[in-house]
């Protein structure tokens, strides 16, 4: 993504019915295709492409990859399905948020033929072949079109962004609370749901696998509470967004080894779970629930 490696993960589940979880950005689509080819998955082989949610760092490449893999069914939560078929509104709102940076960061999502899209409800299932399934569980909070997916064969849980952003270099975990959908209550409920599923491993979209499930999910919930508490304080004190961001950034700095590390690692963290986006999302939620 945007020339960085190790930022957005896509996971290939091999088996009778190969399944790709997350596509990454549109600009990453050729990279994903080459990676799949190197693993022996050709144009006719991929059975399913599923995305945890439709944000452009997770689903931006769906349209391009649907073109590369004509047999693949595209699976997404029902609240996101129409945006994959017609990304114009999604792209327009992303353009408003990111401006010219959009082209470098994400590229343009291509539309996917509506007939190839299967929409998931509160729960759903992807057939991985040989009796193995990937079960989806609606998990809003980060985004209203978010699902987690658990593999019956391995107990791997694909958490998308619902448990925050994990940085493997440092073991840091930070919440992902962007506007306009962030909601603390549903975000905490989704983390509790993930715990209840009893996964063996968490597979973060940003970035990589984590074995220590219980401790990590507890950390996810704690991070949310810390950021919400601090943002609430800043907001009640009447600070504008810039001042609130500066205050929350300062007061959380010592929590993250990444911000003590080299500039590149700190930059990576900011790109994926930037303080401005997190604080703006929390304020947006505060204004909605406590006007
Ligand atoms: Zn993301």
Key features of this structure:
single chain, 291 residues, alpha/beta, six-stranded mixed β-sheet, five-stranded mixed β-sheet, 11 helices, binds zinc ion, ST1585_MBL-fold, NDM-1-like, RibonucZ/Hydroxyglut_hydro, MBL fold metallo-hydrolase
Question: What would you note in describing this structure?
Answer:
- With 291 residues, the protein is α/β, with parallel strands linked by helices.
- The protein has 11 helices and 13 strands.
- The radius of gyration is 18 Å and the shape is globular.
- The model has no long low-confidence stretch (mean pLDDT 95).
- Zinc ion (ZN) binds next to helix 2.
Concise account of the structure shown:
The protein is an alpha/beta fold and 291 residues long.
Q: Tell me the fraction of residues in β-strands, as a range.
A: 15-25%
Helicity, as a percent range: 40-55%
- Count of DSSP E strands? 13
Mean pLDDT: 95
* Main beta-sheet annotation: 6 strands, mixed
Distance between the termini: 37 Å
Protein name: MBL fold metallo-hydrolase
Pfam family, one: Lactamase_B
Domain Metallo-beta-lactamase: 7-206
InterPro entries: Metallo-B-lactamas, NDM-1-like, RibonucZ/Hydroxyglut_hydro, ST1585_MBL-fold
């Amino acid at each position: 993504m945007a020339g960085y490696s190790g930022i957005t993960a896509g996971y290939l589940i091999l088996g009778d019915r190969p399944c790709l979880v997350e596509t990454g950005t549109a600009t990453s689509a050729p990279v994903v295709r080459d990676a799949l080819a190197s693993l022996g998955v050709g144009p006719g082989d991929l059975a399913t492409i599923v995305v945890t949610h439709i944000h452009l760092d997770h689903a931006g490449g769906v349209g391009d990859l649907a073109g590369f893999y004509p047999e693949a069914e595209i699976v997404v939560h029902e609240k996101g399905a129409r945006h994959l078929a017609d990304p114009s509104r999604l792209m327009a709102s992303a353009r408003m948020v990111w401006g010219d940076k959009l082209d470098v960061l994400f590229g343009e999502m291509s539309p996917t033929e509506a007939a190839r899209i299967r929409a998931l409800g509160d729960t759903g299932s992807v057939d991985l072949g040989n009796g193995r399934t990937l079960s989806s569980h609606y998990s809003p909070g980060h985004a209203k079109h978010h699902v987690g997916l658990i593999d019956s064969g391995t107990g791997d849980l694909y958490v998308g962004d619902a448990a925050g952003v994990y940085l493997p270099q440092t073991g840091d975990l930070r919440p992902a609370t962007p506007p306009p959908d962030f909601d603390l209550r549903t975000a905490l409920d989704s983390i509790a749901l993930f715990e209840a599923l009893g996964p063996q491993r968490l597979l973060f979209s940003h970035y990589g696998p984590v074995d220590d499930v219980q401790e990590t999910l507890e950390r996810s919930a704690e991070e949310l509470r810390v950021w919400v508490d601090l943002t609430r304080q800043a907001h009640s004190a009447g600070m504008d967004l810039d001042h609130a961001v500066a205050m929350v950034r300062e007061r959380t700095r010592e929590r993250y080894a990444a911000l003590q590390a080299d500039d590149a690692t700190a930059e990576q963290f900011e790109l994926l779970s930037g303080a401005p986006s997190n604080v703006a999302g929390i304020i947006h939620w505060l204004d909605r629930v406590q006007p």
